[in-house]
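#struct-pred

JT: dropping the chains for the assembly here, can someone run the whole complex?
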Amino acid sequence: MATGRTHRPATRSRGIPEATVARLPLYLRALTALSERSVPTVSSEELAAAAGVNSAKLRKDFSYLGSYGTRGVGYDVEYLVYQISRELGLTQDWPVVIVGIGNLGAALAGYGGFASRGFRVAALIDADPAMAGKPVAGIPVQHTDDLEKIIKDNGVSIGVIATPAGVAQQVCDRLVAAGVTSILNFAPTVLSVPDGVDVRKVDLSIELQILAFHEQRKAGEETAAGDGALPAATARGVAAGDSADQGPDGDVPAVMPA
Amino acid sequence: MATGRTHRPATRSRGIPEATVARLPLYLRALTALSERSVPTVSSEELAAAAGVNSAKLRKDFSYLGSYGTRGVGYDVEYLVYQISRELGLTQDWPVVIVGIGNLGAALAGYGGFASRGFRVAALIDADPAMAGKPVAGIPVQHTDDLEKIIKDNGVSIGVIATPAGVAQQVCDRLVAAGVTSILNFAPTVLSVPDGVDVRKVDLSIELQILAFHEQRKAGEETAAGDGALPAATARGVAAGDSADQGPDGDVPAVMPA
DNA sequence: ATGTGTGAATACATTCACAGCA
DNA sequence: TGCTGTGAATGTATTCACACAT
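RK: done, full complex below.
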């Protein structure tokens, strides 16, 4: 959108593929590093290497944002940082609340990547009265009773759930009722949310299980009982790939504090 | 690099799509819950609802594993639990080491989902000499100096990196050199690994940025300057969707302890 | 020369819709 | 009759390869 570029919608139209959106943060991180080293421009090849993707994909991804590069030269680092930040909505800063201050919640609260990337921990919330008032990562923990007020007073629209699985849905319901429309769920449960609310999950156990699956292959077919064993086949540097889905309701799983 | 691969042996029997593999843990979790409630059978419809996917997808996923259902009836819960566990390689248990025992590492160490799901924390490793010997979640922390020995003595092939970004690559290199072939990376860096080593990332900041992107849209087109704004359109329960990729090397980012 | 931007080709994933088995 | 299993249809993502701007 930026300037008045009204040609083919292909450029800045509202149709950025999810897969591309998921990679923008990666590019942004690599670009930020370059920016800090005062590198003025990068080629798609270089940037792709730094982000761990291949250059064709990167160029295609950028093409959805617009034509921000210069043929024969590459991309202007600062300009791209700005464009991607804007596209991701990071030019404003998002107040976030973290609910469930166990080890995980504390780790999240202390995560340095927040402030620097458009997010601000507006509040830490926990159900344990003993924690109320105690500062974690410099921020005082507040009691769950005040959840609704905290959300409203701070205009919070993004919530992080780091509670035990048993109370996650209930916390989720309260967050949503109070106005939160995006949730990052670390509890190992499928959350049900109304339409219009986004849920993303982070789940240690799932990630490990996926690794185990590939690990098992690499280990050879020793286990092969009556299977039409397939030797190598997969030894590729799989190195990741997620996928989640969703019907009308919530989403999935995750790590969990003590 | 495990065994030889090179071409595209892409057989068929052993060809479970990545997207399906990524969902098996979800199904497994839902099935385990049913199993605990002594539910004997489930239909694809019911199980799909519990796992947060749609039934056609679930049936297609299961079709890659074999024909484990009964037409007109559904799936036998116990049997499916076993088949999926086996497919994921969870019938054996995987010793795992966690490197970097900050808040995050401690949270992971205390995660209950380990033991119950085929994983065992074989060791906790940290570079801080002051931590050595101190138990975290009941497991004594060991010093980084002994990393290689620990990996070898325990036959560890899966490592979790929860260190600050600055040392992640270095830790990764040592893990790989010592024999680890699967890595779950929580540090916000792209790790380079040789072929045959799988890397998966978990990155709080990236997840939040993806949420922010969608959140921005929902917020309306207030920012809309000369854009052919697209009003509602997105209010759907987007609710997730990942995607990562990879070239020849490693992968990406993540949370980070204090 | 060099490296972007992008149509066209290919690969992968989801959804449909229904035949066929219990 | 009810629900699985799966080909065919559709949708999405990645990769190729090259015209073209600088």
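JT: nice. Residues 17-20, 54, 56-57, 60, 70-73 of chain A lie near DNA strand D (CB under 10 Å from a C1'). The radius of gyration of chain A is 21 Å.
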